[in-house]
Design a protein that fits this description.
CATH topology: Ubiquitin-like (UB roll)
Strand content: 15-25%
Shape: globular
CATH class: Alpha Beta
Helix content: 10-25%
CATH architecture: Roll
Order of helices and strands: EHEHHEEE
Largest sheet: 5 strands, mixed
Strand order of the largest sheet: 2-1-5-3-4
Structural class: alpha+beta
């Protein structure tokens, strides 16, 4: 089964470790995670069921375009990494 891993921020509301899930596409794998962690879906997908702009998904080490990542086929040995870009913090003082 493909394995899904989330960054620490997302893992705080989703699975804390990499998780094997059924699914032949990225969407099917994520849906399997969302079934157990429904709050996570709103952090990753927008109201049109597309990845949010600040979400980046890697499949087997390759960064995927958010335009078609959900339809991508995955193998039973695939690794899916879901990252959320965070911004903010302190800038340098002069």
């Amino acid at each position: 089964m493909p394995r899904v891993t989330f960054t620490a921020h997302l893992a705080a509301i989703g699975p804390p470790d990499d998780t094997p899930v059924p699914g032949a596409t990225v969407k099917a794998a994520l849906d399997a995670v969302f079934a157990d962690y429904p709050r996570l879906e709103g952090y990753i997908l927008d109201d049109q069921s597309r990845p949010r702009h600040h979400i980046v998904i890697f499949v087997d080490g390759a960064r995927c375009s958010n335009d078609n990542v959900l339809q991508m086929a995955v193998a039973p040995s695939s690794e899916i990494f879901v990252l959320q870009a965070l911004s903010g913090g302190r800038g340098e003082s002069s």
